Amino acid sequence: MELHNTKIDLAKGKREKLIEILNQRLADASDLKSQAKQAHWNVKGMNFIALHELFDQVATEAEGYTDLIAERITTLGGVALGTVRVAAQNSSLAEYPLEIADGAAHVDALSNALADFGKKIRTNIDDSDDLGDKDTADIFTEVSRGIDKLLWFVEAHLQA
User: Fold this and answer.
1) CA–CA dist 125, 83 (Å, integer)
2) Exposure string over 9-22, b if 16+ CB within 10 A, otherwise e
3) In whole angstroms, what is the distance from residue 106 CA to residue 35 CA?
4) DSSP designation for 10
5) Of the CATH numbers 2.10.109.10, 3.30.70.20, 3.40.50.12710, 1.20.1260.10, which one belongs to the domain with range 12-155?
6) Which tens digits make up the pLDDT trace of 122-160?
7) What is the pTM of this model?
8) Cβ within 8 Å of residue 127, ≥6 positions away
């Protein structure tokens, strides 16, 4: 895909690699948002309202991360590949189990997605730094901190 011209002082080859990484995480973040909404809409059980609201918070924050990631892509001269269809084709997250309703099952499924996404983001912090882009590494660090906090909020429902 052709890059737009920019005067950012990162070589074109490095920007292309960064944009590829960012677009992968954009697909994952979009999928994560939709998985959190799936949990939000379908959770049942004794902790319904707490989980319903928590899952909506996860979706809202994941949506914010999609915007942050997409804007970095375009800043680097790339095209943010952000449609639902592209996210569905390109997400590296496991498929969310659609048949569950129990709160604990949703907590387990969503915490798996958050943990997987967080692990990939942490890898991308180093990848971006290795490519000489501390700004993208900083964005991934911000996302990582937020995802870890959300994972804590979700996992706390299974811990006693």
Assistant:
1) 24
2) ebeeeebbbbbebb
3) 10
4) S
5) 1.20.1260.10
6) 999 999 999 999 999 999 999 999 999 999 999 999 887
7) 0.96
8) 21
